[in-house]
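dude i think i finally got it to work??
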Amino acid sequence: MKLSRLLIVLLLALARTAAAAPFDIASIGVQQYKADDYIRAAVALQAMGREGACQALLASAKTNPGPDLRFFVLCRMLFTQRGTNEFRHPYYYRAYIIGDLRDWRLAPIELVDGMPFLLTANWGAADGGGPESAENYLQYCMANCDWNTYSFREVTPKQKSDALAKFLSSNKFQRRLTDFEQKFFSAQIE
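look at this
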């Protein structure tokens, strides 16, 4: 009996330690978008649970004030629309996105079989009021969105290429992609 109580106390202590583990946004590169970086981060954050992940993201956002694409992508991966509430885009960009923005409900990304593809390399300040901070968008998601029940996981090279093929053949593009655009998306899974 005492052994089982001790085991429960140890498991709870380990769970708290895991939930309190710091999240370092610097683990995600900023020079070139790589889907694997975001998948690894999402896996680590989901392992912390919603509360632990939100606290870790908030702490990281406070040390990285201002708009940050990395937080926007992670929020779009980790949260989902709650009921009929809108899951709005971050107020940061006036982006060149191929097709109709309304078709890309998770812009600035599209999730295909767990792979987050960045839809644009052209980001600019939002109309009216300037860009939104990472902390502000995270607070919006925490208050208005549900935690995603999809469990992100590392993917194999074959799964990546299958997801890319599916993504590139999407009718949301509304036209044939240029060679440059195809290379831009392909580079995200390399």
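Confidence is low (pLDDT under 50) at residues 6-20.
im so relieved honestly
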